[in-house]
C-alpha cells in the first residue's frame, strides 16, 4: 500500500551508525560474500538518499524554518562522510580480486559510473564539500527572502511572473525593475558568495589533481560518454542555427506590436494577444491534468492519481518557499515528489508537465536493481521531462483557457527555441569562469555581457543598470548551486523536439518509445539512451539543424 507523503519519517542517521553499517559491507567482502555485500551497500544508500531527499525538500518548502535549516545543515555536514564510505567501497568492489563475482551482481554501467565517482572525492576535500553545500543554502535562502513591491502589493520573485507577462508594457517594465532592484541591492553579497564558491571548487579540483574545476565538474555530473569539446561544438551549432531563427521571431514580434525597440521586459510576452493562461487555479489544473493523462493512455493517469492522492505534490507559491521547480524521490518508498511554484501564468503548465516527466520516469524505473540506475544522468533525465511537455500537446487544451490551445502550442515551441541560446550562454559562461577562476567580480560580469551579446544579440535592458552591466547570470540558481548542470537542458531539448516531430505523424509510436525510455532510467549513459530511443545525438552533425528546420517551417519564420 502506498504510504501518504505526510506519514514519511525516515530515521535520522548518525556518523557512527553509518560507519557500522558500511563496515558490515566490508566484512561481507572480507568473507567473499559479494552478493550480500552489494545488496547491503545498495540498501544503505537507498536509506540515506530517502532521508536526505526529505531533508532537502522540507528546507525548500520553508526556508524560514529554523528546524528545517538545522536539519539541512546537519545533512550537509554528514554527507561528505557518507561519500567517503561510498567511494571507499566502490573502489574496493572495482578492485575486487574476483571481478566476475562483482559483474554478476553489479551492472556494467554501474561500474562505469563508479569508475567516475572514485575520481571526484578524497577525504581532503570533505570540509570543502560541506562548505560548498552551506554556501548553496545561503544562496537559496537569500533569493527566497525577496519581497518586492509591485502594483501596491508585495510578492516573492516567483510572484512577479504574472506582471512580467502582462499585456501592458508599463507593467512588464515595472516587474523587470522590481526584479533587478533586488539583485542590485544584493549584488555585493551575490558576488562574494559566488567568488567563494568558485575558489572553493577550484581548490577541490587542484587537491584532486585536476588543472581546473571543469573536468571535475563533468565527472561530478557523471558524464562518461562526452566531454567539453563536444559541448563546445554544440554551442556553436546553436549559435549558427538557432540564434538567427530566434532573432527573426523577435524581430517580427516587434513589428507586429509596433515597437521601435524590443526591450528585455518585452521578451516574456510571446503571444501578441497575451500569453495563454491556465484554465484555472491549482485545484482546477490538477483535475484537468488527471483527465489529460487518462486520455494519453497507458499508466500515466493511474500514476498521476497515486501522486495526487498520496500527497506527493507541492505546487502552490507561498512566502519563504524556495523558488523554481524540481522533482525528487525517496528510493525506499518508490515514489517521486513534485515541487513547484504556481503563479497563474503559462509557466504553471510548463513546469508541471516538465516535472511530471521526471516523476514518471523515476516511477517507471523504480524496480531497477541498483540505486545508481533509478535516475539517468541529468542530460538524460531532462529528455524525459522535456519530451512529456511536447507529448501532452494533443490534450493541452484542457490545461489552458478555452480556445487557447493552438496559441499555447505555438508559444511553447517559440519559448523552447528561445531557450537554447540562453542555455548555451549559461554553459559557455561557466566554462570561461572556471577556466579562469581568479577573475574579479567585475571581470565575471564583463564575461557574461560579452557572451550574452554573442548568443542573445537582441537583448536590450534599457535603463536597467544591473543586468545591462552583466548581472543577469546572478538570477540563474544553477550557476551557484549546480555548476555545469544547464547544458543538459539544451542537449535534452534537441532530443525532446525529435519526439515532438515523430509524434506529429505517429503519436502512438512516439509514446511507446517515450515510455520505454523512461523505464530504462539510468541503465545507460546519455548517448546510448538517446540511440536506444531511436533519436539522433545532439552531437551528431546536422541533428540540431534538422530540428530547427522543422520548427521554422511550422512557424513560417
Automatic annotation (TrEMBL):
It holds the Pfam family Peptidase_M3. Binds 1 zinc ion. Its cofactor is Zn(2+). SUPFAM superfamilies: Metalloproteases ('zincins'), catalytic domain. Keywords: Hydrolase, Metal-binding, Metalloprotease, Protease, Zinc. It comes from the Bacteria. GO terms for biological process: peptide metabolic process; proteolysis. One of its GO terms (molecular function) is metalloendopeptidase activity. The keyword Hydrolase applies. Belongs to the peptidase M3 family. This is Peptidase family M3. It comes from Komagataeibacter europaeus.
Amino acid at each position: 500500500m502506498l504510504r501518504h507523503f505526510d506519514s514519511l519519517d525516515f530515521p535520522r542517521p548518525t556518523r557512527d551508525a553509518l560507519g557500522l553499517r558500511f563496515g558490515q559491507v566490508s566484512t561481507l567482502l572480507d568473507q567473499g560474500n559479494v552478493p550480500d555485500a552489494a545488496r547491503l551497500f545498495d540498501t544503505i544508500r537507498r536509506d540515506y538518499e530517502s532521508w536526505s531527499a526529505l531533508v532537502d525538500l522540507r528546507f525548500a518548502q520553508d526556508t524560514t524554518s529554523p528546524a528545517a535549516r538545522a536539519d539541512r545543515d546537519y545533512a550537509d555536514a554528514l554527507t561528505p562522510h557518507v561519500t567517503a564510505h561510498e567511494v571507499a567501497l566502490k573502489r574496493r568492489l572495482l578492485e575486487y580480486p574476483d571481478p566476475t563475482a562483482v559483474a554478476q551482481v553489479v551492472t556494467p554501467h554501474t561500474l562505469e559510473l563508479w569508475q567516475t565517482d572514485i575520481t571526484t572525492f578524497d577525504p581532503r576535500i570533505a570540509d570543502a564539500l560541506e562548505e560548498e553545500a552551506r554556501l548553496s543554502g545561503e544562496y537559496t535562502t537569500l533569493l527566497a527572502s525577496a519581497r518586492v513591491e509591485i502594483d501596491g502589493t508585495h510578492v516573492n520573485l516567483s510572484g512577479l511572473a504574472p506582471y512580467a507577462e502582462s499585456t501592458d508594457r508599463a507593467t512588464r517594465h515595472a516587474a523587470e525593475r522590481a526584479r533587478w532592484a533586488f539583485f542590485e541591492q544584493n549584488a555585493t553579497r551575490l558576488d562574494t558568495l559566488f567568488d567563494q564558491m568558485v575558489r572553493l571548487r577550484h581548490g577541490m579540483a587542484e587537491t584532486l589533481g585536476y588543472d581546473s574545476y571543469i573536468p571535475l565538474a563533468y565527472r561530478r555530473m557523471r558524464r562518461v560518454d562526452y566531454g567539453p569539446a563536444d559541448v563546445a561544438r554544440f554551442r556553436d551549432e546553436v549559435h549558427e542555427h538557432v540564434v538567427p531563427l530566434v532573432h527573426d521571431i523577435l524581430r517580427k514580434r516587434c513589428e507586429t506590436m509596433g515597437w521601435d525597440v524590443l526591450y528585455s521586459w518585452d521578451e516574456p510576452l510571446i503571444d501578441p494577444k497575451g500569453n495563454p493562461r491556465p484554465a484555472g487555479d491549482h485545484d482546477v489544473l490538477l483535475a484537468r491534468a488527471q483527465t489529460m493523462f487518462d486520455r494519453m493512455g497507458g499508466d500515466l493517469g493511474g500514476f498521476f492519481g497515486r501522486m495526487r492522492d498520496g500527497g506527493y505534490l507541492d505546487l502552490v507559491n507561498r512566502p519563504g518557499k524556495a523558488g523554481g521547480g524540481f522533482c525528487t524521490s525517496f528510493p525506499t518508498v518508490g515514489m517521486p515528489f513534485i515541487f513547484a511554484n504556481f503563479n497563474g501564468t503559462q509557466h504553471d503548465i510548463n513546469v508541471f508537465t516538465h516535472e511530471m516527466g521526471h516523476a514518471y520516469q523515476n516511477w517507471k524505473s523504480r524496480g531497477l536493481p541498483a540505486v545508481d540506475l533509478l535516475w539517468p544522468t541529468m542530460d538524460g533525465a531532462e529528455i524525459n521531462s522535456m519530451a512529456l511537455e511536447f507529448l501532452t500537446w494533443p490534450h493541452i487544451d484542457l490545461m489552458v483557457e478555452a480556445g487557447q490551445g493552438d496559441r499555447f502550442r505555438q508559444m511553447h515551441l517559440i519559448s523552447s527555441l528561445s531557450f537554447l541560446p540562453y542555455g548555451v550562454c549559461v554553459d559557455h559562461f561557466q566554462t570561461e569562469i572556471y577556466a579562469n577562476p581568479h577573475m574579479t567580480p567585475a571581470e565575471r560580469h564583463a564575461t557574461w555581457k560579452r557572451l550574452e551579446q554573442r548568443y542573445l544579440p537582441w537583448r536590450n535592458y534599457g535603463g536597467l543598470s544591473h543586468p545591462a552591466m552583466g548581472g543577469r547570470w546572478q538570477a540563474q540558481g544553477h550557476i551557484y548551486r549546480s555548476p555545469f548542470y544547464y547544458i543538459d537542458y539544451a542537449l535534452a531539448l534537441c532530443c525532446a523536439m525529435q519526439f515532438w516531430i515523430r509524434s506529429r505523424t505517429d503519436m502512438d509510436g512516439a509514446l511507446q518509445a517515450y515510455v520505454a525510455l523512461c523505464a530504462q532510467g539510468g541503465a545507460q549513459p546519455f548517448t546510448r539512451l538517446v540511440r536506444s530511443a531511436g533519436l539522433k545525438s545532439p552531437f551528431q552533425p546536422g541533428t540540431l539543424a534538422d530540428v530547427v528546420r522543422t520548427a521554422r517551417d511550422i512557424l513560417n519564420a
